[in-house]
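User: My advisor asked me to double-check a structure prediction for Endonuclease V before group meeting. I don't want to rely on an old file, so could you generate it fresh from this sequence?
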Amino acid sequence: MEQHEQNNNLEECDILQQWTRDQDEYKNQLILEDTGAISELVSGKRRKPDGSHYYVGGVDISFIKGNNIDACACLCVLRMPDLELVYEKMEMIHLTQPYIPGYLAFREVPALTKLFNDLQNDAPKYLPDVILTDGNGILHPRGFGLASHLGVILGVPTIGVAKTLISAQGVTDDQEHKDKKKQLQEATDGFDLISDSGEVLGMCLRVHDKAPNPIYISVGHMISLKSAVWIALECSKYRIPEPVRRADLDSREYIRQGKTEPYEFIA
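Assistant: Sure, here is a fresh prediction for Endonuclease V from the sequence you gave:
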C-alpha cells in the first residue's frame, strides 16, 4: 500500500511539473484587451456590420453527487441582446486527470474544448463572440485560471465568473473585503480586486438589485475588464449571468434525470 501511494505521489509530482511548464507557456499568450467583435458589442450595437447577431456562450461542468469523476459538461449559446437560447450541447464525461489546486483547467478544459469543436462542426453560425465560464480568469493564484486557459486554447474571448472569492496574489476575503461588499447597494456597484503588486485582477460586482450577493468577474482572454463587466451586466437577469446560469442549471437537470446520451439543441 505504501509503495502504491508513493508511486501515485511521484506520478502526481511529474504531472504537476509538466502542467506548470504548460501553464507558463499558455500564460505568455494571454491578451488582456478587447479583440475581434468585442469593441463593437460593448458599444451597444445590436448587430454586426454584416447584419448577423452577436452570440455569448456559457460553459459549466456539473458532477454526480458524491462523485468527482463522472460529470455532465454543458455549452450553451445565447443570442444578444435578448438572451434567446440558440444552441446547447450536453454530454456525460469521465475525468481521468487528478484534481490539483491551481490546475483545475487541465482536468476540465479538454471536455469543454470538445463541446466547442462539436459546435464548430454542427452549427458554426452560432459560434460565440465571447464565452463566460464558471471559474476565474487572471483572478487566480498563478494568474491563469480556467477562463484564461480555455480562451487561449480556443483562441476566443473569455470571461471568468465566480460566485465566491478565491484567495489570489494578496486578494482575500478578509474583513476589509467583507466591509466593501456591504457597501454594494444596487446593480452595477462594484470595486476592483487589486493584487499585492498593484495589478487589477478582477471586480467584485453586484449585478442585480434583487441579488445582494456580488459575483467576481475577471478577464479570461482577449477582452478588457471593463468590457467583461459590461457583458456580465448585459447578460444578467438574476445574480449569475445567464449563459453560465443556464449551463449550470441544465447540466444539473441532465444529471438529475439520469441521462447518459449526448443532447444537442440547434435553433
